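Re: that backbone. Tokens:
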């Protein structure tokens, strides 16, 4: 019995149809967009105001530092 080889019948593999890569991408894209939490109009306007205020403050600070260094350079170079 040990010398006998047991022949195992292999079942033919079924072809699994893979979805097209583009179709899969679009499906994944749609599912991810559905998960996004969109801000309200009030939140967008508030955040825009904050960004503009910070830009103005940074611009004013850079202007002040640049002016001070410009004056110091003029004093040094005469």
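Recovered sequence:
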């Amino acid at each position: 019995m040990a010398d006998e080889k047991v022949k195992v019948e292999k079942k033919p593999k079924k072809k699994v149809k893979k979805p097209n890569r583009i179709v899969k991408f679009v499906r994944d894209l749609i599912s991810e967009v559905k998960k996004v939490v969109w801000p309200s109009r009030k939140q967008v306007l508030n955040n825009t105001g904050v960004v503009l205020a910070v830009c103005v403050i940074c611009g004013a600070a850079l202007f002040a530092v640049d002016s001070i260094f410009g004056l110091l350079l003029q004093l040094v170079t005469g």
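The first helix runs from residue 21 to 35. The two ends are 109 Å apart (CA to CA).
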